[in-house]
Model the fold of this input.
Amino acid sequence: MSTETPRTLTEDGVEARLSELLGQERFTPPAPFAAQAEITDPELRARAAADPVAYWEEQARQLRWSQEWTTALNEDDAPFYRWFEGGRINVSDNCLDRHVEAGRGDRVAYHWHGEEGETRDVTYAELLDQTARFAGALRQLGVQQGDVVGIYLPMIPEVVVAMLACTRIGAVHNVVFGGFSAGSVAERMEVSGAKVLVTADGSRRKGKTTAVKPEVDRTMGQLDGLEKIVVVRHAGLDDTPMTDGRDVFFDEVVAAAEPVDPEPLDAEAPMFILYSSGSTAKPKGIQHTTGGYLTGVTTTLRQVFDLQDDDVYWCSADVGWITGHSYIVYGPLANGVTSVMYEGAPDYPHQGIWWELIAKRGVTKFYTAPTAIRAAMKWGVEHVAPHDLSSLKLLGSVGEPINPKAWLWYWHVVGGERCPVVDTWWQTETGAMMITTLPGVDDAKPGSAGTPLPGIDVQVLDAETGERVTEGEGLLAIPRPWPSMLRTLYQDPDRYVSTYWSRFGETTYFVGDSARIDADGYIWVIGRVDDVINVSGHRLSTAEVESAIVAHPHVAEAAVVAKADDLTGQAIVAYVTLNGDTEGSDRIEAEVNQHIADRIGKLARPKRIVWTSDLPKTRSGKIMRRLLRDIAEERDLGDVTTLADPSVVTTLQDRWGAGA
Ligand code: WTA
Done:
């Protein structure tokens, strides 16, 4: 059947094939794939469900522990769960030493590709040597177990070295996405009390080099507690400012340091914090710990990506997000896989660069986001057609719901209808994939992530009653702890409890997504129910963007909402009121955008700003965001009589229409 269908490589041909496929509800695993898959046991979920803790113990045993745990799961202090209590383990040992000792030191860990076409292969042995030395250097710089180390780097192998070196000595890393502004890095360094920051001289993006270090000095130079700044020479800038006694070059400290052995750490030792957006302007420091996290990411990547010895795996995310932590760094390395790492943008130097790299490296497993797939669809099949993608065996998607058309395009144009597509649902908080299809076993339904993975329970609960919904719509919830779950919010356990463990009680994790479950138990994620916007798979909080906008001296008030967007999934729309008789203008718009870029990053700039003299408010003064969303979506507004001044919305609708 469909596995025999050749890829059509013209726009019309693709269009015709996708319309044929749009009616197909289920896609069974292609027979040649299923025949070689590692996991073929349809009973795996049922076996794991019979005793999930024992199942996770079985998975954890595939790692190297220096001491086995005494209690697999301690629930005494719920929702502060503890996994593999009493066990001792080291993450970098499992990611590096273990493979090198087994004779696989010459295996390439990363085929790195730079933006300008440079390449660098880093083997497991080289990665181990660099990591062990940089861990030694960190110790010499005064970093001790439990100290926080900030990392603000582009997509280069040194980012992996820095992260692994932290885990080697039990330092807690706090990686900030390179696309965030230095100002937002400074905030995250300050609230986490980072002692050392690892950054670069500069970064490159689409042919442009930007100096990073001067910005770091400007925003973080005065931070109390930030004692040392380590600078990776990456962008070839030779006038990098260095402060004596505080700043050191990465290559110099690595060369000078003695390698150190991995420290056996408590399974529950904090491993990293990753700041993520929540309902308020203050980002949440999501904290993960050592043994459970590593067990979760290692197991899920192996199962869902059907890892095999000769795989060449590529996850196109950025290490600054959870997807990069779990599935560029820890999952692939713990499994000893060879990965591709790409520094650049998907459309630089040309719009076919990803497909070119897949063909060049013989990539077998590819993991990306729906936004990237939709962008590639827009750029056109002619950028894919010249490249031989026959090495691909499996395709993954993550970060936002994938619309069926993008799913089918991925399946047909990229995968040639040979490769299962796994749509993986999870979050920064869950640490690892939670809902998806097992590629050799389960049918896929385009638009649905699938069912919870073995050992995981995710349910849909009625928003009003909290009762389980077996078919229909509700809120996602997780009724049972899992090893890679967050353990707390950094230095804010109360917010941890109130955000995640109060909506449905103290032992049911509240996800923050709404979803529909169908008669087969397949979950169709609809989207966030809190004030989080998902732009191109990047989580941003409306409150954070609003506070950056109102920081502009001419702005009186701002309300930010999400609007559906064909390309980015959601886009940001800002309604802004200016002070006094200031009029909205291109100049103020540019300034407001600059404020947002400085405080958060360019990625948080609104797609559209609507100037208004007033916002729709209830008589008690609460902004009615629902109406603002409806205006941006050009929907019927329904009842507006509860507004203090109902005429505001008519004016806004006119403005919206005029600017469309
Ligand atoms: C959304 C990214 C639908 C969801 C790994 C979740 C998804 C939020 C999917 C977490 C998917 C992620 N289908 N929605 N396959 N994957 N999401 O923390 O709303 O950056 O709550 O983690 O992204 O985003 P985060």
Q: What stands out?
A: The mean pLDDT is 95. DSSP finds 20 helices and 33 strands in the chain.
